Amino acid sequence: MALNSALIRSIRSYFVKTNPACSIIASRNFASGSDGSPKEGWLSKLLHVKRVEPATESHSRALANKQVVYEMQVHNIKPDRMGDYIKLSEHHLRRVHDNPNMPCKLFGSWSTAFGPQDQAVHIWAYDGYKSVKEMSELLWKDEEYLDYKKQRGSMLINRSNQLLLPFNFWPEPEIHSPGNLYELRSYYLRPGTLIEWGNNWARGIKYRQSQNEAIAGLFAQIGELYVVHHLWAYKDLESRRQIRESAWQKPGWDDLVAYTVPLIRKMDSKIMIPIPCSPLQ
After folding, report:
1. d(CA 118, CA 80)
2. What does each of the 281 residues of the chain score in pLDDT, given as a tens digit?
3. Going by C-beta distance under 8 Å and a sequence separation of 6 or more, which residues neighbour residue 106?
4. Residue 81: exposure state from Cβ atoms within 10 A (0-12, 13-18, ≥19)
């Protein structure tokens, strides 16, 4: 349902009356075209009723074309045990990552700085689902791992994991010099909208590569479903602000926002710092 002139004027009038600050937003998003007709901005696009297109193939076939499977582990740690946890986990993470007989590699490991507190996030990369199964069987026979798991258990409040696939359009991460912070943005989508999300971001990822900040785009296969994670790298919070604001100056970014926001049930963000053994620094 497209917005006609009368409806646009009504919405603009309501915004300005209820909050004068909205006059700036209304002017930006309900501007007129060169012929005097209403020019559709991102907010008007957001108000469109858009039918979810039916899927014709599985998400794994439509959105991922790589063998790799990722496991994201989230550990919520007792506040007074964070230092002990990192010291203990570093040894285990390095031991597994450096062992050529272990069928997985550590992609990255972080502790949270902003967002959920006293939390660690680990992402492992496997060469397919067979490697996930093989790794699980190896760990249950590994006495050193079992001892680590027992010690770790006394430090945790709870933990969870997901198995994820990478979007096929997401660029390979660039090698970054040490000293970065990472943002993990998680989107909880309405069921049935993952294909639409992927199609829009396949066209829009180019707007977020100015500083090689795009690290990973992943979607859940096991665990809570219709969940998407975007991982970004920034030098600091100020560079994050500048990069995100500059995206709005690029024609087409507003379309991406307008067409993906209605797909989201909820979202969250966390700023994370790499722990010393993380391959991503």
Report:
1. 9
2. 444 545 444 544 444 444 444 433 333 343 444 444 444 554 444 444 455 555 555 555 667 767 899 999 999 999 999 999 999 999 999 999 999 999 999 999 999 999 999 999 999 999 999 999 999 999 999 999 999 999 999 999 999 999 999 999 888 877 778 899 999 999 999 999 999 999 999 999 999 888 889 999 999 999 999 999 999 999 999 999 999 999 999 999 999 999 999 999 999 999 999 999 999 99
3. 93, 96, 97, 122, 123, 124, 125, 277, 278, 279
4. middle
Number of H helices, E strands in the chain: 10, 8
DSSP H/E element including 216: strand 214-222
**Token reading at 40:** 């559709």
The Cα-based distances of 141 to 134, 148, 195, 220 in angstroms read 11, 13, 39, 28
What does the block give as tokens for 280? 């991503």
Burial of residue 87 (number of CB atoms within 10 Å: 0-12, 13-18, 19+): exposed
Q: What Rg do the C-alpha atoms of the chain give, in angstroms? A: 22
Write the DSSP string, 15-34.
HHHH-TTHHHHHHHHS-B-T
- For the chain, give the number of residues: 281
